[in-house]
Every structure is written in structure tokens, then in C-alpha cells.
Amino acid sequence: MNEEDERIFNRRVEKFREYMKTYKFEIVPASGYDEYESDIYKVPVIGYVCYIEEKNGKKTICNEPLLHSVYDAGDWGEYDLDPETNILSILPAAPGTFKVMGQIPRDEGFDSIMSGRHPSTHVIMLGFEYPGIPHPEWEDKLRAVWENHVYNNEYEKITGMRIQ
């Protein structure tokens, strides 16, 4: 990228960052789920399956959250297990435990986002929320992921290189 292109790119980055400071994410509370109408949503965790996994001759105790399946979201509520899996137990989750999910644009750059269009999204996990334990501001966390992701998309469009 030559100096002039770099200056133009940096101005666009600043404009995009200013836009993102004012962007309001749609957040759906735990009582309602709509993957298509929200940027952030919470899925109730009903329990955990604890199992032993063997890798490279070592045994590791693992656990996976079991998500509530009332939400019509693909295969949630169905869990594939290797026939060799040694399940230790299934533990209940504390009421009010949630897996927090967020949506980020797939391949859009600055212009598409600032115009309000980002029809193609990708779902990512932001983290877990446990009762009585502080958690991050999910909006701030998603905003940082969005900014980084869209910046990388724009950079790749201009230079042909992806930032690692």
C-alpha cells in the first residue's frame, strides 16, 4: 500500500471507529431468542456433561455445557458422543447460567457496515454468564470483535493480505 492509499485507509478506519461508537446492538434477553433479529442473545445452560478424553496417552477431564433446546436453532439439544467416550456424570447448571452468543458480519467492509447493511452473519460465542458473578459488557466485547473483523476484511480487500 503506498503512502496516499495508507492515509485514505487510515481516515476510513477513523470514520468507521467513530461510527461503531454509536452503533446500538440489538440484545435479546434470555426469555426470548431470535437469531435473525438480534446481535447478542443468551441461551440457557441446563447442565454439563463431564467426561474423560484421552489424547497422546494422557487422560483429561472435560466438560461441555448442555444448552436448553426450546429454541429452534439447528441441532441444539442434540449432542454427538464418540462411542468410546467415558462419561463421568451429568451435572445441573445453576439457574440463571447462560451461553452468550453474538453475530458478526461475514465479509463486509466499512461501507457496507456504515450503510446499515450486513445481511450475512456468522455466530460466535462471547462467553458465559453465571448468577452472582460479574461478566463483561457483552456489547463492548462484541463491538471489539466487530471492529477487528471488519478492519481485517477491509485491509484484505485493499492489500490482498489477511492480518493474523
- Rounded mean pLDDT is 80
**What gap, in angstroms, lies between the N and C termini?**
17 Å
H/E element sequence: HEEEEEHEH
Low-confidence stretches: none
Number of separate strands: 6
Percentage of β-strand residues: 25-35%
Gyration radius from CA atoms, angstroms = 20 Å
In short:
This protein has 164 residues and is α+β, with helices and mostly antiparallel strands.
Please tag this protein with its features:
single chain, 6 strands, 6-stranded mixed sheet, alpha+beta, 164 residues
Describe the structure in your own words.
This protein is α+β, with helices and mostly antiparallel strands. It has a domain at 3-45 and 95-159. It has 3 helices and 6 strands. It has helices spanning 3-22, 110-114, 138-159; strands at residues 27-28, 40-55, 58-67, 86-92, 98-105, 121-129. Strands 1, 2, 3, 4, 5 and 6 form a 6-stranded mixed sheet that branches. Helix 1 (3-22) packs antiparallel against helix 3 (138-159). The longest helix is centred in the C-terminal third of the chain and has 22 residues, at 138-159. The mean pLDDT is 80.
Tell me the layout of helices and strands:
Layout: H1 3-22, E1 27-28, E2 40-55, E3 58-67, E4 86-92, E5 98-105, H2 110-114, E6 121-129, H3 138-159
Parallel strand pairs: 1-2
Antiparallel strand pairs: 2-3, 2-4, 2-5, 5-6
Helix pairs in contact: 1-3
